[in-house]
Structures are given as C-alpha cells and as structure tokens.
Specification:
mainly alpha; 399 residues; 17 helices
Length: 399
C-alpha cells in the first residue's frame, strides 16, 4: 500500500536527492587539496590525503551497524539524522585551523553518509514495485554521477576563493533536508531479523565482492588521471578537469539508460561493466593520443554508471523490501571500503621494485582489477541469470 500512496514525483525527488550527495561525499573537496596542502604545509602529507579518504572508512564502519539503527528508528528519522551530520560536519571542516579537528569533521561526514547511503537505494526497493525498481535504480546512479559533476565543479570554484570556502559545497545537503522533511514518510523499514549477519554476508556475497572490484577498478582513474596526464604531457592542463567532469557526465547518461541497456543485453549485462573498464584502461595505458584518452575515459565512466545500478538492483530484487537493512549496507560498505583501500593497494604494488617508476602503473593495475572483476562476474552467472530472467518477465508484462 505504501507504493500506491507514496509513489508520486515528490517522494521520488526526495529519495533521489539523497543520491546527489553520497558517492562523491569524500572526494567533493578534492579540487581544493592543493590549497589545503599549502595551508597545512607543516603537517604530514598523509593527513592531507586522509581528508579525502577518512569519510570512506567511517561510512564503512557505520554501514556495519546500520541494520541495528534501522531496527530502532524510522526511515525519516534516520535520513534527517544522516543529512544533518553530512551537512554540518561537511561545512564545519572549513572552520578549523587544527588538522585533527578537520579530520574529526570529515569523520562526521562519513557517519552521515553511512546512514544515508543504504537508504538512498533501500527506500527505492521499499516504496517501488519490482516493475519500477530497475528504472529508479538507473536514475539513482545517474543522480550519483550528476552530484559528482556539480560538487567537483562547485568545489573548484570555491577553492579559488579560499580552502575554507571549498567546504561550503556541503550546503547542497540543505536541498535534501528540505525535500525529505516535507515528503518522506517515517516508515519503519523491515530489518530482516530472521537472517543473521553471516547469513546475509553469504547470501549477498556475489554482489558484495563484485562491488568491491567495480569500485577499485573505477577509483584508480580519478585518483591518478590528473597526475599521470600532467607528468606525461598527454593532456593540456586546462583540459584535465573538463575530461574528468565529462567522464562523470557519461556515467550519468549510462545510468539513465540502464533499463534500456539491460533490456537489450539481457543476461550479458553482467559482463558489460568489467569489459568497459578493461577497454578503458587498455586505451589509457597504451595510447598518448587525445582521442584514445577521451575514449578510454568515456569507457570507464560508462562502466561505472551502468555497473553500480546493476549490482544494487540485482541485490535489491533478491532482498525485497528488507534491502535497506540486509543487502545494501553490505554492498555500500564494500563500495566505500574499496575507495579507502585502493590507494593502499596501489602503494603496495608500487613498492615492489619491478614496478617502481612505471608512469602508467595505475592503468596497468586497472587492467588487472578489471580482469578479476570480469572473472567474478562470470562466476556469478547463476545469480545474474535469475535476475535477468525476472527482469525479462517484468519487461514483457509492461509491454
């Protein structure tokens, strides 16, 4: 009955507004890291890098306890709490001159997103029918990427004024606060108590592992593209930010086209994202021509935009209305844990003498993770076939 009562545009806007804030939560101020590093020049450079990475760690930790939070509070209460922590912690980081207080506020942002992230997709599984879910997941992914474009460009403009001003980008959370305060019901999401954490981990492990390798494959690009392009001179400096923003635009478009692409490819869609990642990194690794770099960046953006909604939708179909408390905290945790660990994995690989000094090493590592992701997607064949067959039945019933 909830679907019939609350499936209007206002509810959809409120839920989708959460997706504008989540994936780029930590990296929203990345364009300002240069001026932040200058201000904190006496501090350990690792602390400056942690301004970007520490939210991901606390998102992961919060996701671990999210099912318990879900059993104690309604969805609106949780969303408003998460949005308050996200907005207040994000903006407050620019008020302090002590690096430890800045990092503390970044941890607060992580806790806020750790609450918001499972609900940004879990509420779609709760309020929308199976027939509507794939389309809504596609739009959620598109909003994720659009949020990244807006946050990155706005933060860059604000950083030109002051490193403190760059944190004002988190005032974007006020839009979601307003929409959710007015349109989001405070329903209690089923917490799936009948299944233990270990059972949920086993049930959804195909999607959890896939999300981990998807995000590692993706995150190697924004973490290293600007540096590599500057060092090898393959891209003019003033085009680097444009290309990276364009990659996010491609990802947003692919998310919006998710349902049509899935309908066309059927079960084969399980391999689309890893194949596109592999193609993108092969182009980036072995060409210095601008055309190849543009095409490689587009492939990586398309892979990210199509892969995330596919895995989340597949897991949500399997979990049903308990998705917000069972599957999605685990998948969200895998996404952000991968973001947090990717720089450490790269550093470990780079420390091996045989790999030291290889300029395109991140792209070669991306080729490796893409191959692992592709192999895992093939291993997940039975799970994905069930999802694809269900989706085909839904599409036929709609037609």
């Amino acid at each position: 009955m909830h679907t019939e009562k609350n499936s209007g545009k206002s509810l959809a806007c409120a839920i989708l507004s959460l997706s504008l804030l989540t994936v780029m939560a930590g990296a929203a101020v990345a364009p300002a890291l240069g001026v932040i590093r200058e201000y904190f020049s006496q501090e350990n450079p690792l602390f400056i890098q942690m301004i970007i990475s520490i939210p991901a760690l606390f998102i992961f930790i919060t996701n671990l306890i999210f099912p318990k939070l879900c059993s104690r509070a309604g969805s609106k209460t949780l969303v408003m709490t998460g949005l308050f922590l996200y907005t207040a912690g994000g903006v407050a980081a620019g008020l302090f001159s002590n690096i430890w207080l800045v990092l503390l506020m970044r941890a607060v942002v992580g806790v806020g997103v750790g609450i918001i992230m499972p609900l940004s997709t879990g509420l779609l599984a709760y309020y929308y029918s199976s027939e509507q879910l794939d389309e809504m997941m596609g739009w959620s992914s598109s909003m994720n990427q659009l949020g990244g474009v807006i946050a990155t460009l706005l933060s860059g403009v604000l950083a030109s004024l002051s490193w403190r001003a760059s944190f004002l980008v988190y005032f974007l959370g006020l839009l979601s606060i307003l929409l959710c305060a007015v349109f989001l019901p405070d329903d209690r999401i089923p917490s799936g108590h009948s299944s233990s954490s270990s059972e949920n981990l086993k049930t959804f492990s195909p999607y959890i592992v896939a999300m981990f390798f998807l995000m590692m494959s993706f995150f190697l690009y924004p973490s290293n593209f600007a540096m590599i392009s500057t060092m090898d001179g393959s891209v003019p400096q003033h085009w680097i930010a444009v290309i990276m923003a364009g990659m996010d635009v491609v990802a947003a478009i692919s998310g919006a086209l998710f349902v049509k692409i899935k309908g066309f490819l059927g079960n084969s869609i399980r391999c689309l994202a890893p194949v596109l990642f592999l193609s993108g990194y092969l182009l980036l690794a072995f060409t210095t021509q601008l055309t190849g770099i543009l095409l490689g960046s587009a492939c990586i953006g398309f892979a990210n935009g199509i892969g995330i909604p596919y895995l989340i939708a597949a897991a949500s179909h399997k979990a049903g209305k308990t998705a917000a408390a069972t599957a999605l905290p685990l998948i969200s945790g895998a996404l952000y844990l991968s973001q947090f660990l990717t720089p450490f994995v790269y550093s470990a690989v780079e420390s091996v003498p045989v790999f030291s000094g290889i300029l395109h090493l991140p792209y070669y590592l991306g080729i490796g993770t893409s191959v692992i992701f592709l192999c895992w997607s093939v291993v997940m064949l039975s799970e994905h076939r069930l999802y694809a067959e269900r989706s085909v039945r839904v599409d036929l019933s709609q037609g």
